[in-house]
Design goal:
The protein is an alpha/beta fold. Among the domains are: 121 residues, Domain 2, N(10)-formyltetrahydrofolate synthetase; 82 residues, Formyltetrahydrofolate synthetase, domain 3 (Roll). The protein is 34% helix and 19% strand. The strands form seven sheets. Strands 1, 2, 3, 4, 5, 6, 13, 14, 15, 16, 17 and 18 form a twelve-stranded mixed β-sheet that branches. A three-stranded mixed β-sheet has the order 20-23-22. A hairpin with a 4-residue loop joins β13 and β14. α3 packs across α16, α6 packs across α7 and α8 packs antiparallel against α9.
């Protein structure tokens, strides 16, 4: 695909950003200064969340749909902006690939967006790792805070996949003698510093969150924060510019804000509150997305991001595909890194019928939050009309306000016009009656149980003794009103990625919990979800190179 890029200053003017609010990073990318928040009035635009059914390793087109919908609305003469997460280098060089869409619906300049953009990922990495160093330095210099070394919560981070760093042991020198510490690295997108950046409403809010970020306990069991080790101010200085959203454009020159990149299976899985606030103050429509399915990024968007932003969506677009529904059929084997079953690409109404239970539960999950659903069937070349029409009919039967098709990957904005009309009609009806799944004063254990039972379909939740003990200590310390963020596989409603469809009545494990007071949630690990991914047998990075003209190859 060849795209004629507009100068970013022209894109900014179209968005409504003044020259004094724009910080240029070359001709085609820029940052937006947070001073813009001071002049923007109350929310102007409609807020549209794009989420999806349970994903497959092939991807079902959620980012393509987000980009295509924003372009289609602009073609209808509505001002619209897409707000998206920034890609992590770990998946880029590993298995997942680029995070800028595809076909006729891409974010450009794609190479810049996928690689370093304006350096935000590095800023998060540096801020996080400085914090760990300050904690250890305090212990080395006499340990005046009486930190218990085995209780250090913060891990170092790195924006690559490296399984060898998941678990490490090192010797920490202290005046009382050497201490062996067992810890590990996590990928930058999974760090609490990334979540702090994502969930901050403005600079003052980020400064408060950094101050409250819990780093360890003392020997009496009391929680110690970044402020206690005198690292919060330094972190704020490092992250000051990283809190400013990045402005780029789509393949049809529609404005796009790309900012922050937490994963949805182990973190909050959405772009920044700041980006959405700016978009809603400038545009008729903000099209944002959450990672993976409704059970992962969607629930966290509703229960965590909306709780802190004070914003709620007018409509939710739920992306599905015929092949994705077939992939939920137990007799078809879909494994990451392995060639998909050829049956996915042949008409098979029976296999698709097996997968419709998955779509049904995702529709019901969105409606739990009082948000109307428009199902978007992302069309692939191998889909047949009987299959597509069956999905549309069943989606409406399951409670969707509408079900439309999209060919945005092939046709760009033109392929998403039906979706744009449907979204606009649904949003204008004003039927959203947003509600959280739980209120702040519900005990942490009950919040986790409610998500597992109401959203995942679990029959019961099994907490380890350590998890129970930690939850009680968090509540005793005053953290009981925080929302919960559950880390689990994205490939199933359960904690076991091989269980397809919409299982019911299963036992859901909570193996350990972690306090993320700066980000503003309690993280519950339901499985062996790794916060530091490894590389596959044949990493995508093997194909990436630079030709003699300096053009990067192998990124598509």
């Amino acid at each position: 695909m060849t795209t004629r890029l507009c100068d970013i200053q022209r894109v900014a003017r179209r968005l409504g950003v003044r020259a004094s609010e724009l910080e240029l990073h070359g001709r085609y990318k820029a940052k937006i200064d947070l001073s813009i928040l001071d002049r923007l009035g109350p929310r102007r635009g409609k807020y549209v969340l794009v989420t999806a059914m349970t994903p497959t390793p092939m991807g079902e087109g959620k980012t393509v749909t987000t980009i295509g919908l924003s372009m289609a609305l602009n073609r209808l003469k509505r001002s619209a902006v897409a707000t998206l997460r920034q890609a992590s280098l770990g998946p880029l060089f590993g298995a997942k690939g680029v995070g800028t869409g595809g076909g006729a619906c891409q974010i450009v300049p794609a190479d810049d967006v996928n690689l370093h953009l304006t350096g935000d990922m590095l800023a998060v990495e540096v801020a996080n790792n400085l914090l760990v160093s300050f904690v250890e330095n305090t212990i080395f210099h006499g340990n005046p805070l009486d930190i218990e070394p085995s209780s250090i919560l913060i891990k170092r981070c790195l924006d690559v996949g490296d399984r060898a760093l998941r678990r490490i042991t090192y010797t920490l020198k202290a005046k009382t003698g050497p201490v062996d510490v067992t810890t590990g690295f996590e990928i930058t997108a999974a760090s609490e510093s990334m979540s702090v950046l994502t969930l901050s409403r403005d600079f003052a809010d980020m400064r408060r969150r950094l101050k409250d970020l819990v780093v360890a306990r003392d020997r009496e069991g009391l929680f110690l924060t970044a402020h206690d080790v005198k690292a919060d101010g330094m972190m704020a200085a490092v992250l000051k510019d990283a809190l400013k959203p990045n402005l780029v454009q789509t393949s049809e020159n529609t404005p796009c804000l790309v900012h922050t990149g937490p994963f949805a299976n182990v973190s909050v899985g959405t772009c920044s509150i700041v980006a959405d606030r700016i978009g809603l103050g400038l545009c008729d429509y903000v099209i944002t997305e959450s990672g993976f399915g409704v059970d992962c990024g969607g629930e966290k968007f509703f229960d965590i991001k909306c709780r802190y932003s004070g914003l709620s969506p007018d409509v939710c677009v739920l992306v599905c595909s015929v092949r994705g529904l077939k992939a939920q059929c137990p007799r078809l084997r879909i494994v990451p890194g392995v060639e998909p079953d050829p049956a996915l690409f042949r008409e098979d109404l029976a296999a698709m019928e097996d997968g419709l239970a998955n779509l049904k539960r995702h529709i019901e999950n969105v409606r739990l939050f009082g948000v109307p659903v428009v199902v978007c069937v992302n069309v692939f070349a191998t889909d047949t009309r009987p299959e597509i029409e069956r999905v549309r009919a069943k989606a409406k039967e399951f409670g969707a306000a509408d079900a439309v098709v999209s060919t945005a990957w092939r046709d760009g904005a033109a392929g998403a016009l039906e979706l744009a009309h449907s979204v606009e009609k649904t949003a204008q009806l004003g039927q959203a009656r947003f509600k959280f799944l739980y209120e702040d004063d519900v005990p942490l254990r009950d919040k986790i149980t409610r998500v597992a039972q109401k959203v995942y379909g679990a029959g019961s939740v099994d907490f380890t003794a350590k998890a129970e003990e930690d939850l009680m200590s968090y509540e005793a310390a005053g953290y009981g009103r925080l929302p919960v963020c559950i880390a689990k596989t994205q490939f199933s409603f359960t904690a076991e990625e091989h269980l397809k469809g919409a299982p019911d009545g299963f036992r859901f494990p909570v193996k350990d919990v972690r306090l993320a007071a700066g980000a503003g949630f309690v993280l519950a690990h339901a499985s062996l979800s790794q916060t530091m991914p490894g590389l596959p047998v044949a990493p995508r990075g093997e194909k990436i190179d630079v030709d003699p003209t300096g053009r990067i190859t192998g990124m598509d």
